[in-house]
């Protein structure tokens, strides 16, 4: 008897795979409006600063392979096929849904490589997938994991990585080292919509620090867009300045809203925030990204299997 086939639509942000793709990528993010030459140059220089391009595509591929393997380990009774769809790069979500239809996938679960739900983040991925499903006539049913920000294995994985970062400080100093949980900022107008995003970041931070018994923590924001409207704050650079003004000499940053090494982690924290901390004489330690760590993949796979039961 053949196993039931379940497609997994794993959605990610995407990144250019060559220098030539930076312009179309940036244009797509800007909804078809090409960036100004100075904006394009600045983004290109940021990629150059982290080695030329972001490793996001390679990490996303490794995560997809690991997720498929882990799903089969956790539930050998079904045949899981993981497909990757990108928001701003090939293969786009629509292209991936089209491929799933061509492969005969009738039942699918969608999950975004981001733990926290917002109408302006995960909500837009789901919208893209649903529009593609209607256009291509399938899969007949896709149910979505909307968030997995307090999934116990995700908390375990994050707690271990935060503890490893704190272990870089002398034992007697650790309690005084603040841990800042950061996520990608969004326009402040989400607060008027009752969006759960800021609350979910807080809930992750609370669960992680409760697990390791570290009471000195708070949340911050990073990578805000450059638009006239206000974005969620305080920005991580302002947090570092404020902590320095209060006499803090060491800080740990956990970019918990991101699940892989890419531009917003490797440039915004590892270069920009680190440079500011160095200038102020502060020691900054960044918590390692989960990437394709087995425990992290078990967390996502478990969230997918729980959604399958609901779906």
Notes on the structure:
This protein has 311 residues and is α/β, with parallel strands linked by helices. The chain folds into two domains: 4-148 and 292-310, 3-Layer(aba) Sandwich (Rossmann fold), CATH 3.40.50.1400; 152-286, Rossmann fold (3-Layer(aba) Sandwich). 45% of the residues lie in helices and 16% in strands. The protein is built from eleven helices and eight strands. The protein has helices at residues 22-29, 37-49, 56-74, 93-102, 122-136, 152-166, 197-212, 236-245, 263-266, 268-279, 294-310, and strands at residues 4-12, 78-86, 107-112, 141-145, 179-184, 217-222, 250-254, 283-286. The chain has a four-stranded parallel beta sheet with strand order 2-1-3-4, sandwiched between helices. Strands 6-5-7-8 form a four-stranded parallel beta sheet, sandwiched between helices. Strand 5 (179-184), helix 7 and strand 6 (217-222) form a beta-alpha-beta unit. 41% of the residues are buried. The model has no long low-confidence stretch (mean pLDDT 97). One of its GO terms (molecular function) is metal ion binding. Belongs to the ferrochelatase family.
């Amino acid at each position: 008897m053949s196993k039931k086939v379940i497609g997994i639509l794993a959605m990610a942000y995407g990144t250019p795979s060559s220098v030539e793709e930076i312009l179309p990528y940036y244009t797509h993010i800007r909804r078809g409006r090409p960036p100004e030459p100075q904006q394009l140059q600045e983004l290109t220089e940021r990629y150059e600063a982290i080695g030329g391009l972001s490793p996001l595509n390679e990490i996303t591929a490794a995560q997809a392979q690991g997720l498929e393997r882990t799903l089969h380990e956790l539930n050998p009774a079904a045949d899981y096929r993981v497909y990757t769809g990108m928001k701003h790069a090939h293969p786009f979500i629509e292209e991936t849904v089209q491929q799933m239809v061509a492969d005969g996938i009738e039942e699918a679960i969608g999950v975004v490589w981001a733990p926290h739900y917002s109408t302006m983040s995960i909500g837009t991925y789901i919208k893209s997938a649903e529009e593609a499903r209607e256009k291509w006539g399938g899969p007949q049913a896709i149910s979505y994991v909307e968030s997995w920000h307090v999934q116990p294995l995700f908390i375990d994985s994050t707690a271990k990585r935060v503890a490893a970062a704190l272990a870089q400080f002398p034992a007697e100093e650790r309690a005084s080292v603040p841990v800042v949980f950061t996520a990608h900022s969004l326009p402040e107008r989400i607060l008027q919509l009752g969006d759960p995003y800021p609350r979910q970041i807080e809930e992750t931070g609370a669960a992680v620090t409760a697990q390791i018994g570290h009471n000195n923590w708070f949340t911050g924001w990073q990578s805000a867009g450059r638009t006239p409207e206000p974005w969620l704050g305080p920005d991580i650079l302002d947090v570092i300045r404020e902590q320095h003004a209060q006499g803090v000499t060491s800080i740990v940053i956990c970019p918990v809203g991101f699940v892989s090494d890419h531009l917003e982690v490797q440039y915004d924290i590892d270069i920009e925030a680190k440079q500011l901390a160095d200038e102020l004489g502060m020691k900054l330690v960044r918590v390692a990204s989960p990437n394709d760590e087995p425990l992290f993949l078990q967390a996502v796979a478990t969230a997918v299997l729980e959604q399958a039961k609901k779906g």
